[in-house]
Amino acid sequence: MEWANELINWYLIEKRNLPWRNTKDPYLIWLSEIILQQTRVAQGLPYYYKFTAAYPTVFDLAMAKEDAVLKTWQGLGYYSRARNMLKTANSIVIDYNGNFPNNYNDLLKLKGIGQYTAAAIASFAFDEKVAVLDGNVYRVLARHFGIEAVINLGSSKKLFLEIANTLIPSSNPSIFNQAIMEFGALQCVPKNPNCAQCPFCVSCFALQNNKVDKLPVKEAKRLSKIRYFNYVHFHNPEIVYLVKRGHTDIWANLYELPLIETIQAANDFEIKKAIEDILSTSLSDYELSVDLTLTHKLTHQTIYARFWRLESSFNLPAFFLKIPRDELGSYPISRLTEKYFEQMNLQ
Asked: Which of 39, 71, 154, 190 could potentially form a cystine with 332 if both were Cys, beta carbons 3.0 to 4.6 Å apart?
């Protein structure tokens, strides 16, 4: 209890003034937690303001079109979060009359809300005594208490939860949870923390045992999958031809230039042949060139992308969407596609 009180005292002095900390509205808290998953606060804050301006209530979000939500989300990555958010908003409006469940177990039943998010909402909005576990919390607990269990193994979660639940006070679980998360974000940072200014420097196992850079223990990341994307820009000064991605791969339901994926880097002859197969016409009289080459890294994938240019003075398939250039901004696209559009001054 003494450790928890010290942590809370630190928090009350050092905490950042963030908008979702000044509310008990579960919708706003949920929104912030979904946005901040795997996103830094500095990056996520503008998106929080964008979403609250566009969808101030769960009813507004539930009535939104998926394309509009994905466009608002554009740039954050992990687009399944945005799609799940829309489904959850619909469920809350239809199944719960617009009211969020007020406890951890019922929150877990909602689409896209896992253990961490359910605990955060239950704690911050409803003061339920339930511990939160995010990367910051794992790091603080592992270092201070000398826990050497591998944090990204599911089998370790129970151990960390048990410890966190013994620390969390009944009187103010919300403040404690926010305090330990903030402590990991500001003080007990991943690399080169300022241990000399830490209020727990004497009691910290990692510091006393020269293991600050060794804790927490993580399992080695799996190798990144390599993919080769060849986008085709059928050039037209007024029109951009886009295709909507499917539901099962990365960037599901986003829009992009027509794509040819190859198992290795392809030359212009191979790409031209692939385009001929799609269009059922010869391209012998057309010049194909590379506008831009980009490398785009995702969590478990590395994409080597080439953007090919081809004049579009022939018939194109009906499934190619014919978009006026001045309307491109209303279509949700991946950051990779956005980089190309920026380079070509298409937006």
From this structure: 71
% of the chain beyond a pLDDT of 90: 76
What CATH number should be reported for the domain holding residue 50? 1.10.340.30
Concatenated DSSP letters of 304-332: EEEEEEEE--S---TTSEEEEGGGGGGS-
238 vs 24, more confident: 24
- Over residues 57-76, the mean pLDDT reads 95
170: left (phi over 0), alpha (psi -120 to 50) or beta: alpha
Answer yes or no: do 335 and 203 share one domain.
Answer: no
- Strands 301-311 and 225-235 turn out to be parallel
Q: CA 173, CA 102: separation in Å to the nearest integer?
A: 15
Structural domain for 318, as ranges: 225-343
**What is the pLDDT at residue 164?**
93
Question: Are the C-beta atoms of 164 and 138 separated by less than 8 Å?
Answer: no
Asked if 317 and 278 count as a contact pair (C-beta separation under 8 A), the reply is yes
Coil, strand or helix: which one is 262?
strand
* Inter-helix orientation angle 26-36/41-54, to 10°: 140
CA distance 79 to 101: 24
Q: 200 by DSSP, 3-state: which?
A: coil
Residue 219 domain flag: no
**Does 301 share its domain with 334?**
yes
- Does residue 347 surpass a pLDDT of 70? no
Clarify whether residues 195 and 268 are in a common domain.
no
Note whether 24 and 125 are same-domain residues.
Answer: yes
Catalytic residue among 6, 33, 238, 327: 33
Rounded mean pLDDT, 306-314: 84
- We report the CATH number of the domain holding residue 284 as 3.90.79.10
d(CA 121, CA 117): 6
When divided into structural domains, the chain yields a total of 2
Q: Is the model's pLDDT at 252 over the cut of 70?
A: yes
Residue after which a domain boundary falls, among 173, 208, 243: 208
pLDDT band at 245 (very low <50, low <70, confident <90, very high): very high
pLDDT at 282 over 90: no
| Catalytic residue flag (residue 33) | yes
Is residue 254 located within the same domain as residue 337?
Answer: yes
